[in-house]
Write a structure and sequence with these properties.
nine-stranded mixed beta sheet; D-Amino Acid Oxidase, Chain A, domain 2; three-stranded antiparallel beta sheet; single chain; about 375 residues
Length: about 375
């Protein structure tokens, strides 16, 4: 999303733009697929009509664990849309704006020289450019590794489910955060009446289960009765779950060596915040705008770090508590006694631009 968003704006401004996409056809991604107010604002600016693509509204959040279920309305409008659908639409817009979209190609190396950047693709073909925007998500380009995150001991899995009609109806309009030993899982509806389950587990706990998805799925339900009720009678829609590890949660890039790092290459916020897609779009749009103004990659990375570091730090403290005792029980207890705390968390982990700070302050008035 970050790379495509930047490519759309750069191409529309008349820049000769090459967008390199590793996959040859649309793919699902390990992603919660939650579109916050900020993400929706960026998509409207790019010309994306998410409703026309089938996005479904999300109006409330539920927290479920051993102590029961807590629920509160979200402090902003949100939607849900699969990455496969959204990514394809953004690449279509980039191509329509004049960008050259090269699919089925992967960058094997990216090297800076006196003229700019040299990217070598899998077929050994070289590509020279004056500027390079790195938007490879959670996967690093060879020779450009990110430092480990604050919480890098997690494995993420994703599975689409066809819930029973009764459970589908119960889930409408909600994103649910289900807590269990060693991890948590987000469940929300996406287009087509399908539910997206994106879950995390500490590597040590997963290994203790024998390293099997089936064992993890059973353990999650044993520890969270709410999730068990949701998945009762449900049918998995993928042959096997998607997975990614390690995840450098808490990483925020503090500087640049001339490379414009976007999305997860710039910052990785814990998934329970639902802000990953917003950060990706925000970074792509801001990078393109600053580049077109003549700003440097170093100035961009510093400004993005200033905007994201406080929110990522707060989200990290909460994420670490969600997977460990006794912090998890304490957080559940607080949410049960004061459901509005979920709205506070949702507000305080958003991208910190001026517009969003005003919106967060307004949303908090009715909470305290």
């Amino acid at each position: 999303m970050a790379g495509s968003a930047a490519a759309v704006l750069l191409a529309r401004a008349g820049c000769k733009t090459l967008l390199i996409e590793k996959e040859s056809k649309p793919q699902h991604k390990v992603c919660g697929e939650f579109l916050s107010h900020e993400a929706l604002s960026h998509l409207r600016g790019l010309g994306v009509d998410v409703a026309a693509l089938g996005a479904v509204p999300i109006t409330a959040v539920r927290l479920a664990g051993r102590l029961g279920v807590s629920e509160t309305p979200l402090p902003f409008a949100a939607m849900s849309l699969t990455r496969r659908t959204l990514d394809e639409e953004l690449m279509r817009l980039a191509e329509g704006a004049g960008a050259c979209v090269q699919r089925g190609s992967s960058v094997q190396s990216l090297v800076r020289d006196a003229q700019g950047w040299q990217a070598t693709l899998a077929d050994a073909s070289p590509n020279a450019a004056s500027a390079a925007f790195l938007a490879t998500g959670k996967h690093d380009v060879h020779g450009l590794p990110r430092p480990a995150g604050v919480q890098s001991n997690l494995i993420a899995f994703k599975m689409y489910w066809q819930l029973t009609p009764a459970q589908t109806k119960e889930l409408v309009g909600h994103v649910e955060l289900n807590l269990y030993r060693g991890g948590y899982a987000g469940l929300q509806p996406v287009e087509g009446g399908v539910a997206n389950l994106c879950c995390l587990i500490r590597r040590s706990d997963f290994q203790r289960m024998g390293g099997r998805w089936e064992s993890l799925l059973q353990a999650m339900q044993n520890d969270c009765s709410h999730l068990k009720s949701r998945l009762h009678g449900a049918e998995p829609l993928l042959a096997r779950p998607l997975a990614v590890s390690p995840i450098p949660y808490g990483f925020v890039r503090p500087y640049s060596d001339g490379l414009w790092a976007l999305g997860d290459q710039a910052a990785v916020i814990p998934s329970f915040t639902g802000d990953g897609m917003s950060i990706a779009l925000h970074s792509g749009v801001m990078a393109a705008e600053m580049y077109l103004r003549g700003d440097t990659a170093e100035a961009f990375q510093q400004r993005l770090h200033e905007q994201l570091a406080p929110q990522v730090a707060l989200a990290m403290r909460l994420s670490q508590g969600l997977v460990a005792e006794p912090q998890r029980t304490l957080m559940e207890t607080v949410a049960r006694l004061w459901p509005g705390v979920l709205r506070v968390v949702a507000s305080r982990t958003r991208v910190s631009t001026h517009e969003n700070r005003v919106a967060m302050d307004a949303a908090s008035v009715g909470i305290y």
